[in-house]
Amino acid sequence: MLCNVCKQNEAKVHLTKIVRDKMQKLDLCEDCSKEKGVDDPTNFSLTEVLLGKVTEEVAAMVQAEAAPEVGLKCPTCGYSQADFKKAGRFGCADCYATFGEGLETMLKTMHRGTRHTGKVPAALQQSRAEAQKLKQLQKRLEKAIEEERFEEAAQLRDEIKRMK
Amino acid sequence: MTIHDFLAPVSVACQRTGPSDHIVMSSRVRLARNLRKQPFPAWAKKPDRLRVLEMVKPAVESLPQLSPHFAAAMDELSPLDKQILVERHLISREHAAKGAGSGLVVNQEESVCVMINEEDHLRMQALRPGLQLKACWQAIDAVDSTLEPKLDFAFSPELGYLTACPTNLGTGIRVSAMLHLPGLVLAEDITRVINASNKLGFAVRGLYGEGTEALGNVFQVSNQMTLGESESQIIERISKALLQIIEDEENARQLLLEQKPKIILNHIGRAYGILANAHTITSKETMNLLSLLRLGGELGLFEKLTRALTDELFLLTQPAHLQRQHTEKLGAEERDILRSDMLRERLRHIARPHGLGPQNQSGPV
Questions:
Q1: Helices (H), chain B
Q2: Is the pLDDT of residue B268 over 80?
Q3: Beta bridge mates, B175
């Protein structure tokens, strides 16, 4: 692994920061880390590095890596990650897709599971049933091929084609 | 017509009975639903909220399940009407604070009530007296299914119904029962019950929900998790917990009677004494004492006291309901006086409590 700063030497110092369930890494070689003032692991505080007590260059790099997430806004309603952090609520239904990353970890702490198993609107119920049937057919097809029952496999293949 | 004129009088509403209503005052199932592509109420600008209200209100009003109904935008209701609705548990305190862009539709029976643009675009609830969670779910499930083709609900196959707060995600269901637990409180066993409920993933709150006091020994028990279980599984699980709490409360009452009869009689006798004789009394004290009166009624200590009467007084003595019985604007002190006047009058025909059988007779009745 090469140093992120000089991009020449092997990285020996690895900074890891977790921001909203997303890991951000910074890898530095010995020379660069000394230059940036993060060479003494016993006397090193990640917060200090991140709060700008190291050279601005490093801070800028850490920020640059975090930037795409900080700037993330919901295309439908304009809600930002920062808004969510403040309010604990989303801006609109599409925010669940926009801010989907890390959502599962949060849901795990709140609920019994992370998949909906309850009521489904009638209009979608049919498509759910169809999807399940398709899955079953595909499984039977695989098994038929495995067991060299090719006539049945062909029938199943046609049935799947019709459904799609 | 005001909401107060539309709803059945309190005296009539309190005649409604249900299973286990000696402990379970009411059951409720609430569903949260939102529209696709529309910002959630808290993030929406006023025109967005008005647009959603205009889409949702007519759809809800067309429901056969809500006929006859009362519908209003929140800015059309007076602060007094809103408070009446809160005291009747038809809307949340949060919803009462809303103005233009939020609304409400409630049927005359008070069995279905829909809040529009509360925290979610729709918060629809079914209410029943006593322990009737399944009936509540069936009723609100039907309302939801009838609305489905008319409104474009935000739903994801993986995450279920999408809600403003991720704590409601999935089923969007909140199942709750309002429990009167004076026995567990007097036996100082209520903390254990609350902790056990919390461990099972159920919240225990006060009379008016989140962040409120358990006035009158009334507690609301509800599910907290909404994702990863089906609606029926959630109802099944909370029903089991509620049956256990009911049993605990019954046992606590029985045990108190057997082991500390004087303590029980003392509490109930004093409650009666104050309620039937006070000349000024706050709403908080009234609720706490009426709770003991209700307990005395359940234990058979009063000849003529009915549950309907204690429940009626419980509602009528609350600030907005009390104000509604008088035309002039009342201050807190005037309310306390008028409240005590009403209590003395309504309890005039109720004789003081007798003892617990011959050996405990506290004197001639």
A1: 3-6, 10-13, 46-61, 79-87, 93-96, 133-147, 182-186, 190-199, 231-259, 261-277, 283-298, 307-316, 319-324, 332-346
A2: yes
A3: B29
Helix axis angle, A122-146 to A150-163, nearest 10°: 160
Residue of B nearest to A107 (CA): B166
- Residue B122: beta bridge partners? B33, B116
> Peptide bond before B68: cis, by omega within 30 degrees of 0?
yes
Tell me the pLDDT tens digit for each residue of A115-153.
999 999 988 887 777 778 888 889 999 999 999 999 899
Q: Chain B residue closest to A79 (CA)?
A: B43
Amino acid occupying residue A103: L
Which of B29, B35, B43 is best to mutate for the A interface (most A CBs within 10 A)? B43
Say whether B43 and A79 touch across the interface (CB within 8 A): yes
In this complex, the residue of B36, B148, B167 whose CB is nearest that of residue A93 is B36
Q: How confident is the model at residue B260 (pLDDT cuts 50, 70, 90)?
A: very high
Q: Express each pLDDT in B292-306 by its tens digit.
A: 999 999 999 998 899
What does pTM read for this prediction?
0.79
